[in-house]
Amino acid sequence: MEVDYEALATGAGSERAETAAFDTAAAVLTSGSSPLLFTSLGKPSLQPVTDKRANDRVGRRLGALLNRLTAANGLKRVVVAGGDTSSHALSELHIGALTLRHPFAQSPGSPVCLGHRFDGSAPLELVLKGGQIGNEDFLVRIRDGRLD
Predict the structure, then answer these.
(1) Which residues does residue 80 pair with via DSSP β-bridges, in sequence order?
(2) Which of helix, strand or coil describes residue 133?
(3) Residue 144 to residues 30, 119, 139, 141, Cα–Cα distance (Å)
(4) Which residues pair with 79 in a beta bridge?
């Protein structure tokens, strides 16, 4: 499900975009499926945002959205794609340390880690996926715990 990049980047309509993304993702989770949120598929379809901090704002807002979804839905495992987005997501998830949980032979650069939170609450399994890493079934295999 697409999240409005421009709204997150500029702040104009950001609350509405985040609420819509949260509600849709929560409904998908409630139905027993796995949501996939994204801000871009392939070539950009909008005018570039010229503010150099826009991508940082988008990463932080996506991280905050993920934090809300994990808390509200009791998620135990998540995948975050994109290097900058991953760093912002870790910050918004209040992750202070990562430890290796499982290597993933298909993608040695993206193992399953345990994210340890600053508040000492239960760790979160997560994969920080760089672009172009993993086969087409990467996300499904992570979701299903098939790490061979």
Answers:
(1) 128
(2) coil
(3) 17, 28, 9, 5
(4) 127
Quick: pLDDT tens for 27-36: 999 999 999 9
Predicted local distance difference test score (pLDDT) of residue 47: 59
H helices present in the chain, as ranges: 5-10, 14-30, 54-73, 83-92, 138-144
Distance of CA 40 to the CA centre of its chain: 13
Residue pair 68/24 in contact (Cβ under 8 Å)? The answer is no
Instruction: Compute the CA torsion angle 67, 133, 40, 49 (nearest 10 deg).
Output: 90
Place of tokens 């993206």: 110
CA distance 95 to 118: 6
Distance CA 84, CA 28 (A): 26
pTM: 0.88
